[in-house]
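User: I'm new to structure prediction. If I give you an amino acid sequence, what do you actually give back? Let's try with this one:
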Amino acid sequence: MATQTLDAPAGALKVRRRSPLDWAKQHVLLVVTVLVFVFMLLPNAVILWMSFNQPDGKFNYTWNKFSLDAWKNPCSNSTMCHSIGLSLGIGAVATIIATILGTMIAFAMVRHRFKARSGINALLFLPMAAPEVVMGATLAALFFNTIGPGGMGFWTITIAHVMFCISYVVVTVKSRLAGMDPTLERAAEDLYATPTQTFMKVTLPLVAPGIGAAALLAFAISIDDYIITVFTAGNSETFPMYIFGSVQRAYPAQIDVIGSMMLLGTMLVIVVSQLLNRARSARK
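Assistant: Good question. You get back a string of structure tokens that encode the predicted 3D arrangement of the chain. For your 284 residues, that looks like this:
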């Protein structure tokens, strides 16, 4: 009897033991997700890490020693900060124009039926599908034959960025409009709200998250663009163009500092938006 009592728990423990393969099968989705996130965020972590480096030479490629000099004076190179200001200015203007025009086009595409609707819908994807080199060369030929190379700069870059940012805004706002419940607007009309009141108090608040997301996407694409900008910049130099040129001359740690600032600013915007959404949901 005593032998049977001792053997039973030992057998039970043997049944519960799992092999590493079983553990991998049950957690394969978690493991793949973690690896994908590491793959996506590793370059950003390297940029943040190298921003605290004091390079031993002109190129901040290898770790030398910890330093805060680059963070204390990120604009030690006036040319780099001028290019950052130019990129931010172009991104802001292009985002505002593309968001306004793209939102209007999205409303027209979703709320109205007209003959050329399907054709315009297909043409909207052309700037996203066409190779940037082809678009840049086409725009360069257009500007050379109209205003000449001397007139190329801030506004030619802005026009080019507005052109391809509109497509992303239209697609983003259209998806938001397509998922919106139309009964809410009909209810406002049944309560004798004017079309303006219905749009300002019902439609616009519901579409606002989609418009905000489209604006952020357009700004990110504009400030990051290099290929089309090279063809339309003339003598101007944006931040991506400065970085590409620096790779051949010198690569200071300040470039990583600016990149880290952009990364941290983006994360701050995401965190604040999530907190606002949670607070809005809690009030409901």
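You can read the tokens as a compact description of the fold. Here is one thing that stands out. The chain is about 75% helix and 0% strand.
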